[in-house]
Amino acid sequence: MNVNKIMYRPIGILVGVLGGVLATSAFDKLWGAVGPGDEAPDATDKQATWGQVLLAATIQGAIFGVVRAAVDRAGATGYRKVTGEWPDD
């Protein structure tokens, strides 16, 4: 296994956790502004409509995908600035 990958792994895990926290916060704020309730419905919430459940899942998936890509890219770029190597080189 590549040394850069091994060294980057703990950084990548930390960046991923922080990204999850950011994405959750962003989703909660957005859902609070556009959703019909304070909290997004679970798929098994019998009070929620199909539309509400699918809208919440779509918004959540989009936010998590974008935030994950952004923080992963920022982590790899920061690693390169510090070490001079890209994590999977």
From TrEMBL:
Q: Where are the transmembrane segments?
A: 50-71
Keyword annotations of the record: Membrane, Transmembrane, Transmembrane helix
Pfam families documented for this protein:
DUF4235
Query: Which InterPro entries does the entry mention?
Result: DUF4235
Q: What is this protein called?
A: DUF4235 domain-containing protein
Q: What is the organism field in this record?
A: Actinophytocola glycyrrhizae
